[in-house]
Specification:
Blueprint lengths: L1 E9 L2 E9 L3 E2 L11 H14 L5 E6 L2 E6 L1 H10 L3 E7 L3 H13 L6 H14 L4 H7 L4 H8 L6 H8 L5 H7 L5 H14 L3 H25 L3 H14 L3 E6 L2 E6 L4 H13 L4
Parallel strand pairs: 3-5, 4-6
Antiparallel strand pairs: 1-2, 2-6, 4-5, 7-8
């Protein structure tokens, strides 16, 4: 390690920049990012060859050398470029601080997809024992935003993979969660990707599907009733001017009158008080 004469502004303070041998630097064991685009690394390596490292990486010194806190992509590109040392700022950090900085740096990536973002929030909560509210406050997000992103972790793996590959968006994924049948959800996700559906179109499709499913279920339930029960339902509907349902089970039953407003409710009560059903 050799000290540079240069200073780098880190927050509100000047930080000393050291030149650290690349062989002494190790990747961050808490790095949530598992894959790095090789083509973009090569592009960055070409830029480094031409302009050098414009921003020092941040390291934490350990008994085994130096661990990267911030700047693993620059470290990998510098290796490709053939550099033997890197400009770095060495910070005194705890394990928890190192873990948190690695996750926060990952969240600041421009190419971060929705699944990676959701996994980073979950990792902060699990590894650092944070609540959703604490994660939201630390990252200047609303708690509802964090909660909505975390819902993506409930998606089946094939759909999560589609979001990672940017075939569908995170918003598509959250909308698909309204489908309770996993097999139908997977089929619909493929259709969304193939036909390039907008999120709004998907929302309308699912809403219509639920309505149709409800009508179909009601129709099947009605058809399964004995004929004399269906006849009584029709008569009561005509008599009281509203939808009436009669259900029976184990020699017990229930008559349900439907109303859609307070005025309709009061009208029904008056009629029921004045009339005798049977």
């Amino acid at each position: 390690m050799r000290r540079s004469d240069n200073k780098y502004v880190d927050g509100n303070e000047d930080a000393t920049v050291y030149h650290i041998a690349i062989k002494d630097i190790k990747p961050n064991p808490y790095q949530p990012r598992k894959t790095f685009d090789e083509e973009s690394l090569v592009d960055l390596a070409d830029s480094i060859k031409q302009h050098g490292i414009l921003q020092p990486i941040v390291l934490r010194q350990t008994v085994k050398g130096y661990h990267i806190v911030v700047g693993e992509r620059r470290y990998r590109a510098a290796q490709i470029a053939g550099l033997s040392e890197l400009p770095a700022i060495v910070k005194q950090l705890t394990e928890s601080e190192m873990m948190e900085l690695a996750i926060i740096e990952n969240l600041q990536r421009e190419d971060l997809n929705a699944m990676e973002e959701a996994e980073s929030y979950a990792k902060l909560m699990h590894d650092l024992n944070m609540t959703q509210q604490e994660v939201a406050k630390r990252l200047s997000k609303s708690r509802s935003y964090v909660a909505n992103m975390l819902r993506l972790l409930n998606l089946p793996q094939p759909i999560a993979k589609m979001i990672r590959e940017e075939k569908i968006s995170g918003a598509h994924g959250r909308t698909l969660l309204a489908m309770k049948d996993v097999h139908k959800m997977k089929r619909l996700a493929k259709k969304v990707a193939q036909e390039k559906w907008s999120v709004r179109y998907l929302e309308r499709y699912i809403a219509d599907h639920k309505v149709n499913q409800k009508v179909e279920t009601s129709s099947k339930r009605a058809q399964s009733k004995p004929q004399f029960i269906r006849k009584q339902e029709r008569q009561l509907k005509e008599q009281y001017g509203t939808q009436v349902s009669i259900s029976t089970r184990n020699q017990k039953g229930q008559i349900t009158f439907e109303f859609t407003s307070e005025a309709e409710f009061k009208r029904l009560i008056r009629q029921l008080n004045n009339d005798q059903l049977f």
